[in-house]
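Rather than argue in generalities, we have chosen a single entry, letters for residues, whole numbers for local backbone shapes, without further comment.
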Amino acid sequence: MSIKLIVLDVDGTLTDGKITYSQNGDETKSFCVKDGLAIASWIKLGREVAIITGRSSKIVERRATELGIKHFYQGVHNKKEVLETLLSKLNLTMENVASIGDDLNDYTMLSASKVAFIPANASAYIKDIADIQLTHCGGDGAVREMIEQLIVNEGLEKAYLKLWY
């Protein structure tokens, strides 16, 4: 396996799927710091990360910027189509892609990817197409679990650990 790109859904994957509105109409989301460290590490290892999400949010844009995610797509209806365009730009194929998503709008993207991950609390309707169902829920370390499995599978453990000591 040679995974060069991981593709992340947001709501229910990078977050717990809850959207909270303040009385003023402001939206809030919570992200798992452990996921963030693993994403930043994957990038430091010379690999690519993309966020492809159906909703649009300044909060998600801020998080992507903080983590150094260069490939960021919001308000996407057809995630597979956006992924195919990105692969062409990066000169990669679906054989180089691992993706994670939790719901029906991730179905085509997950089914096209070489390796499809889903959080523990993903929709039952996408469990049949997942290669790996993680033990962590979305927003609670699922992305970290995915990345660390890929690091082991790709033989990158020593380089990964060396980033931090």
